[in-house]
Amino acid sequence: MKRIFNITGQCDPEIHYMVNLDTRLAEIRKLIEQGAFFSINKGRQYGKTTTLHALRAFLQADYIVISLDFQFLSTDSFKNEATFVSDFSDRLCRALRGTSGLDEIIMKELKECASNKDCSLVKLFSLISDLCGTAKKPIVLLIDEVDSASNNQVFLDFLAQLRGYYIHRKELPIFRSVILAGVYDIKNLKNKIRPDSEHRINSPWNIATKFGVDMAFSEADIEGMLKSYEQDHHTGMDVRAMAQMIRDYTSGYPLLVSNLCKIMDEELPEQEKYSGELLVWSKEGLIDATAMILSESNALFDSLLRQLREYPELKSILYAILFHGNSVAYNRYNTVIDLADMFGFIKNTEGAVAIANRIFETLLYNFFISEEDIGSKIYRAGANDRKRFVTDGILDMDFVMERFAVEFDHLYHGEDERFIEENGRKFFLLFLKPIINGTGNYYVEARTRDNRRTDIIVNYHGTEYVIEVKIWRGEEYNKRGEQQLADYLDLYEAKKGWLLSFNFNKSKIPGIKEIQCGDKTLVEVVV
Fold first, then answer.
1. How far apart are CA 217 and CA 219, in angstroms?
2. Angstrom distance (rounded) from CA 475 to CA 486
3. What's this model's pTM, rounded to 2 decimal places?
4. 3-state secondary structure of 118
């Protein structure tokens, strides 16, 4: 059977190309052997279900593994304690069906709990304790999709029982380990129900051990998966280089990795441009696959953008990072940063908040720009001149920069310095977006973004254009910027780059000029 790249549901190595999970599973097993109770909280479609499924098989020789999915419980299951206990007991019995080494009398009583609407949590946990105490192997409980229990007090009462037995497990046998998987951290569920500070401190899941296993795909992980694919398909790709590029674009977010690979495997070969000698598994193929992902509606993107509407503070901090170049310290005790991390928007880079990956960053730029494009004069200026900027499929970046300078001066001449400094890079992206929309793409190089300069990389029909956008800070600073851009062009094997300077000096000379910096040509635009 031909294997495919999977982007829906759990992955199966028999039918899907996958990264090797053995190292991660071994790390999780160490926590289980220590008797840890913990949560796996990651963004949507981050491989949680696949990991739990693989973990069950990984542990089965030495443990009895109970694997539950709260998606199989309905809203009514959490209506009150009786219905929860009945439905939970039913799922528990189903999960243990056919398992050897369990006391038959206790199992019979658990089945009675499933059919008896008067069974309590106290009774349920008494039976679970007896079951764990008499089982031939230690029992591990895995619960996936705990988000389904969101906003339900009965689930918090369930966690409180787990905590009580965990604390007294020397006298009262209980599961060797409990793993809860979902997007929301348990403390965030608690906050939704009882937002007062006392209950935030006294969370029933304060027994949880920190889960520090990195579930993002490393470059080596991706390379291993691509090697397996190459053995089947013989595409001629440079596996190591492709793995590095995919990692650069995704930072190893599992769904994004699989989605890029799936598009290059299944969709790009159908395009006429890849019918000849041009390799699908190339930089141009990856760029086109990225553009396709960003142009589509999918559950992950819809979920991310929905959070921006529900949490205005989250939206504000991401906007400030992207457009104002604000540096924000990474602190999980900051509620907004904690939410951003939990949803997968950000990562911790040397103690500072950074957008999680290049694709999410472009998604956010597109989202923020789309909120302003219809009413933006600079956006309409770019849209009106769109056809003039492309000749025979080649983007004339010199002309783009020239026209932006003219339109910007016409529309925003006389605006104060702070207004321009805070919005300059946004204005340029608003002008650029309709010009490349549908054919090209762009991303902002995070390593160079601050409140003084930003490097924007534009991809158009496989050609990359490197543009540095900066605030004028004097001639000496400008000279350093020219050299930095020239050096940076080496990374892209490019001979030409563009400098866009927002200059507030009253004696400035606006316009466009071409300068040489070593063997590099720099086109400098001053507005």
1. 7
2. 17
3. 0.88
4. coil
